[in-house]
């Protein structure tokens, strides 16, 4: 099965005119703020871009892309019941979002990739790109091949460096047909971890829980700091902290999604299966504090990162109905379903007494539903392997022992061995 796949490549901008780029970032921030302000004041969204195209000291195409991005952020906040509504008083640089050949251009010369960014009308910034060899090779291929298309890009400053983030699309990438699947991998995404379970028609192959508690901790830390500053009337750096948090979470999710896809690749003809949580948030109200945590969780972002990284490896993905995956006992002879079966990270079936890591149990159920959606045989699961947990560290993911001593019983996977939280 052929489909278009898009990947973002990151490069450093080698230029002698950083001042012009910095001025353009500030002008982009003004466009963003004006877009949010005008939209909040009730201006028709279709009229905002034409107005700002005439007022901004940017090329029209770049202004259009920035306005579109700002309105998209506003629409997303409306979809989350006004959670984290964008501010029109942000400060600091904002990325230049540009179309290829309009806001920016790339060319090959003397074994280097040269760029031309229209930072201001009739005032371009020129230089060469630096970056990872794999990224440079892929961009060169995209510029020369009819199978690839170079798309939008963003010029920005990050950690004191000027960068260009370029989207390239493979127009005819081959992704395995999901009906040729041999192994279904169920993915259960949570606030502090993701559980993965691989099933074939004859047995469960493996399962793992990849923890990322640092994301939850860091986001709570940022929230606490911003809350204290707001209570003290110090809101000047509120948006700066919010942007730092967003960048941190974004980078962490990229690392986690890469680790997930690496784990999935070990299996024969895999299919990655997610829960379809599209309408879940709209139907649940846990109160102010829990709603804030639920609506801000990066479920969709992590899911999309995993899906497109998997697709680049030829691995398809799919969704299943999430009903009762966290409440049902995954043992085939039982499958008792009750909300009381789960208590935080511990799953203990009220009917058969089996204990398991709650997220792994849900991932197994997701994989079972994935097999059913393909009209495949679901294996008789009467025992499950001991849960393995991976904790991400500076050097990557490392295995952590999960079997506990007999005196410290945790979540049992098979009626004999306990596994830790």
TrEMBL record:
Transmembrane residue ranges: none
Which portions of the sequence form the region Disordered?
A: 400-421
Give the GO molecular function terms.
DNA binding; endonuclease activity
Listed Basic and acidic residues bias regions = 411-421
- Listed Pfam families: Cas12f1-like_TNB (PF07282)
Keyword Metal-binding present in the record's keywords: the answer is: no
Could you list this entry's UniProt keywords, alphabetically sorted: DNA-binding, Endonuclease, Hydrolase, Nuclease
* UniProt keyword Endoplasmic reticulum present: no
Tell me which residues make up the Cas12f1-like TNB domain: 299-366
What the entry lists under NCBIfam families is as follows: guided_TnpB, IS200/IS605 family accessory protein TnpB-like domain
- Tell me what this protein is called: RNA-guided endonuclease InsQ/TnpB family protein
Origin species: Halorubrum tibetense
């Amino acid at each position: 099965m052929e489909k278009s796949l898009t990947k973002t490549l990151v490069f450093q901008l080698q230029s002698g005119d950083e001042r012009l780029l910095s001025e353009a970032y500030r002008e982009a921030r003004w466009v963003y703020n004006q877009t949010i302000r005008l939209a909040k004041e009730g201006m028709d969204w279709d009229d905002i871009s034409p107005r700002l195209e005439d007022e901004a000291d940017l090329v029209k195409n770049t202004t259009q892309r920035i306005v579109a991005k700002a309105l998209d952020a506003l629409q997303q906040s409306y979809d989350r019941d006004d959670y984290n509504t964008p501010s029109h008083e942000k400060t600091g640089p904002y990325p230049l979002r540009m179309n290829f050949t309009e806001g920016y251009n790339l060319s090959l010369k003397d074994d280097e990739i040269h760029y031309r960014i229209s930072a201001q009308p009739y005032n371009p910034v020129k230089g060469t790109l630096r970056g990872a060899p794999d990224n440079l090779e892929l961009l060169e291929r995209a510029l020369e091949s009819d199978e690839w298309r170079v798309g939008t890009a963003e010029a920005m400053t990050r950690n004191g460096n000027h960068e260009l983030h370029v989207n390239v699309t493979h127009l005819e990438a081959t992704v395995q047909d999901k009906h040729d699947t041999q192994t279904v991998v169920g993915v259960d995404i949570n606030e502090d971890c993701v559980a993965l379970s691989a099933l074939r028609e004859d047995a469960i192959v493996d399962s793992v829980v990849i923890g990322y508690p640092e994301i939850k901790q860091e986001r709570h830390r940022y929230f606490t700091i911003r809350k204290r500053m707001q209570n003290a009337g110090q809101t000047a750096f509120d948006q700066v902290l919010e942007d730092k948090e967003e960048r941190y979470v974004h980078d962490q999710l990229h690392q986690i999604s890469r680790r997930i896809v690496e784990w999935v690749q070990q299996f024969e003809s895999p299919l990655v299966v997610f829960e379809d949580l599209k309408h879940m948030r709209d139907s649940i109200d846990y109160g102010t504090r829990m709603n804030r945590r639920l609506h801000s969780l990066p479920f969709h972002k992590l899911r999309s990162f995993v899906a497109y990284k998997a697709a680049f490896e030829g691995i398809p993905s799919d969704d299943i109905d999430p009903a009762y995956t966290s409440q049902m006992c995954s043992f085939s002879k039982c499958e008792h379903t009750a909300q009381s079966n789960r208590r935080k990270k511990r799953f203990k079936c009220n009917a058969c007494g089996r204990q398991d890591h709650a997220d792994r149990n849900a991932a197994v159920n997701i994989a079972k539903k994935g097999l059913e959606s393909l009209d495949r045989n679901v294996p008789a699961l009467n025992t499950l392997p001991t849960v393995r947990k991976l904790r991400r560290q500076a050097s990557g993911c490392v295995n952590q022992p999960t079997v506990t001593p007999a005196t410290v019983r945790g979540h049992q996977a098979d009626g004999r061995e306990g596994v830790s939280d």
